[in-house]
Amino acid sequence: MTCLLLVGALVACAGSVRDSIRSIDAGAVGAPAVATGKPAPADAFLAALARHCGRAYAGKIVANRPEPATADPFAGKALVMHVRGCDDPARGLRIPFHVGDDRSRTWVLTRTAGGLRLKHDHRHEDGSADAVTMYGGDTVTPGTAQRQEFPVDAESIALFEREGLPASVTNTWAMEIGPGDRFLYELSRPGGRLFQVEFDLATPVEAPPAPWGAR
Questions:
Q1: Left if phi > 0, otherwise alpha if psi is -120 to 50, otherwise beta: which for 26?
Q2: How far is residue 193's CA from residue 52's CA, in Å, rounded to a whole number?
Q3: Please, which pLDDT band fits residue 25 given cuts at 50, 70 and 90?
Q4: Record's superkingdom (predicted)?
Q5: Strand positions, DSSP E, the chain
Q6: What is the pLDDT of residues 117-140, one digit of tens each?
Q7: Of 4, 39, 64, 137, which is most buried, counting CB atoms within 10 Å of its CB?
Q8: CA 22/CA 174 separation, integer angstroms
Q9: What is the mean pLDDT of the chain?
């Protein structure tokens, strides 16, 4: 009798394993995400932005609160983004952000193992690096093909503290692309700071000169 019970248990176990394999093959919960055939949100976001390689677009400030206490460097200036660094879009992009004649700013987007990294490359007119440069952060959630968020990283916090910029240690940056042929760059802080520039992707403008320090 004991032997019969043991054989029955083994048969039942084998049947259970076969059922589990069928469930995975059929796309049951727990199957690898790659089975869907959809690109990761980070890759889809980069691809959407890379479609604009070589083109430049005019922007406007759509949010800037609270009002700056000192002279606003963006007020009354032509704002232009240029999707310029596209040697290998799958790995990342360089996007200069021109403020009038000031060509010191470049957004640097790169692919990481976990998502995307955003850094801000700031240069002087002679091409030398600004004291506050290459700050930013990595995505900590998958985000979507339309929006990616970048909380400030530890390296940038140390930089801001060293340079006497305590308000910036809580920064979160974000980028959005679409719908409606728009690109949005955003800076926010928990205390209510919100800065957003929106660009019209439906209407390319003349490409500006190269950013300061570009090869």
A1: alpha
A2: 29
A3: very low
A4: Bacteria
A5: 56-65, 79-82, 92-99, 102-111, 116-122, 135-138, 147-151, 172-177, 182-188, 194-205
A6: 999 999 999 999 999 999 999 999
A7: 137
A8: 42
A9: 85
